[in-house]
Amino acid sequence: MVSAWAPQIPDGDGPLYERLVAALRADVASGALAAGARLPPQRDLAYRLGIGLGTVTRAYVEAERAGLVSAHVGRGSFVNAPADHRAPVRDGPINLAQNIAPTGPAASRLAEALARLRRRPDLLEHLAYAPAAGHEAQRRAGARWLARFGGYDGATWSRLVCCNGAQQGLALAMSVSARAGDTVLCEASTYNGVKALAAHMSLRLKGLALDDEGVRPDALEAAAKATGARVLSLIPTLQNPTGRIMSLARREAIVAIARRLDLTIIEDDIYGAYAPDAPPPLALLAPERTFHVSGVSKTLGPGLRAGFLVAPSQAAFERVLDAVRAVTFAPSGFGGLVATQWIEDGAADQIVAEVRAEATARLSLAREILGAAIEAPRSDCAPHVWLPMSELEAERLSGRALRGGAEVTPPDAPIVEPGLVTGVRVCLGAAPDLQTLRRGLETVAGALSSEVGERSRAVI
């Protein structure tokens, strides 16, 4: 049946056909246009809206390129199901182990972004080696991203280095701040990528005790004095794995200690987009000593490998460039160019808004199913939840969940200092849809019930 679709075309400076595609996307996302609905014939829609037939034809072509609709000769154009935009579902247990953003919002815009790239005057420049810091357009876009989604207003693009993902940004910051054998301070349980970097670079990690706001100042000061460490690696916003957020007062206390003891700070702000109300980053509070690392992997898509590193000084920036030239010579051009296109044309704002909305729905489901077992999330769109428990209980829960068909983050993956901060991280974004996520969370809830039952029997 032909839809009586009569969209409200948004105002704006963009071409009319692009705004018509935006209206189509919005109506698909809201459910006003159901999957399988047949769009009106182009001539009919043009008459209905009082616009040119060529404009409607161009919009339908762009919508097909973006994957929003499928056109069939002699039959018309039909709205694709949301599943058409999903990444392939992997075999095996439900993935609650990886922090991956829902892919639909970015996937539905990818073809459109690639079409726009063809019209960029700097497109062919990206076939050549980029400068060691990356192309200027991408560096400027990176600074806009940090300001828009990380609260890093005034990030200096001239000291920003484009990286092949935030992980490379962390590696570059570590490589110019510490030498083999040095001690690096970090959270007692932290991002496993930091542990991997430390092992690869022969660094010693010293885990610091946490409270509800993250690293405790007294623990930081004591460990720095005891070890002589000069580098502090932190995730102050939606800390991985606990999801805790440092208050402004806590950030200021950490910065005061770092200044007094002359510590270099490496700030991982990869989850900043999921906490729009978080306090300002450490890089704003202590710009003279903070390497700030972020990227688009947790929102726009990890396959873009677009990360950003802002160095605290020109001298540090030059050392980072030396490291880039030694290891990769230059950052990759095209993944970052897609991210740049989205940041420049506003699609990034739309994608992040949709990812946040989906994350909010997924977190609500986790609260419903796991209840008091999860530590209170610090953001309504947090991408993972934390179930505090002993390391032994965590191992048992992980095993039961896996046997039931759901994989959570391995409990030992984040642990740096055993016995201080232990539990199970459950990631909410990788499941392909809410129905699959529900099944996975119910499996974890069942494993929790079994754990409680065993402890009760042990008491008797």
UniProtKB/TrEMBL annotation:
Lineage: Bacteria, Pseudomonadati, Pseudomonadota, Alphaproteobacteria, Caulobacterales
Alphabetized PANTHER family for the sequence: HTH-TYPE TRANSCRIPTIONAL REGULATORY PROTEIN GABR (PTHR46577)
Family annotation (SMART domains): HTH_GNTR
Protein name: GntR family transcriptional regulator
Origin species: Caulobacter segnis
PROSITE patterns the record matches: HTH_GNTR
GO molecular function, one term: pyridoxal phosphate binding
Pfam families the record matches: Aminotran_1_2, GntR
Residues forming coiled coils: none
Keyword terms of this UniProt record: DNA-binding, Pyridoxal phosphate, Transcription, Transcription regulation
Gene3D superfamilies in the cross-refs: Aspartate Aminotransferase, domain 1, Type I PLP-dependent aspartate aminotransferase-like (Major domain), Winged helix-like DNA-binding domain superfamily/Winged helix DNA-binding domain
Family from the record: In the C-terminal section; belongs to the class-I pyridoxal-phosphate-dependent aminotransferase family.
Domain HTH gntR-type: 14-82
CDD domains cross-referenced by the UniProt entry: AAT_like, WHTH_GntR
